[in-house]
Every structure is written in C-alpha cells, then in structure tokens.
Structure of 2-oxoglutarate dehydrogenase:
Amino acid sequence: MSIIRRNILYIAWTFALVASMGSLYMSNVLHWTPCVLCWYQRIFLYPLVFVIGAGIIKKITDLEYLVLPLTVTGGAIAFYHSLLQYGIISEKFVVCTSGVSCTEPYHILYPFITVPLLSLITFIAISLGMYIYHIKKEKMS
C-alpha cells in the first residue's frame, strides 16, 4: 500500500491520461459519435491530464482542491448518464434532444460495461486518489 501512496498522483494522472486517450480513440478510430452528456464528461476529464500533470511538476501541495471540483462534477454527469443508459431513469428525463441519443449505449468488453460507466469509474478513481493524497499530506504535517 505504501507504494500506492507514494505514487498516488502519478496513478491519478495515468487514469486521466488513459481515459482521455481512450475517449479520443473511440471517437477518432472507432468513429463512435459522442452524445451531449459524453461531451460534458470530456469537458471535465481532459483538463485533469494537465492540472494533475502541472501539479506534479510544480509540486502543488493543495492539488486536490483543483482536481476534486472537476472529478465530482464529471462523476455526477457520468452517474446520471449511466442511470439513463441502464434504464433506471426514464427516457423522458433525457437532456439530449439533438444528435446522438444519450440512452444509446456503446458497450465495451462486456454487455454491462458502457462508456459512461468507465467514465464514472475513472472519476471515482481519481477522486479516491486525491483523497489518499490529502490523507497522506495530513499525516506528514
């Protein structure tokens, strides 16, 4: 566990980088057109690569306060999007009125793993990483 704590910012940055590259791969290589909610999730995901990266390079001590607003908001959108795709929230509450439907799932690996679910997992993992980083900081001071 100590190796994870020592490298938690690098792990969080890797999650952000892999998820960003994965979303670009899905749109540019697989030609999956993102829906409106996917675009909103990307708005909160893509800056994390640069914010966490700059925080590591500049040794920003309060990095979690820059990252958590992005991950919590992006995670909330991903959670809502997942509930829509799994049919837990009715289609009449869909915010996507033009373009690709937000309820049309793109499945990855297994029938139940969708793009918004992966996005949600990423936002949760990065948030958890920031929590671990915060706890580590508190113990050191």
The two ends are 20 Å apart (CA to CA). The chain has one domain: 2-140.
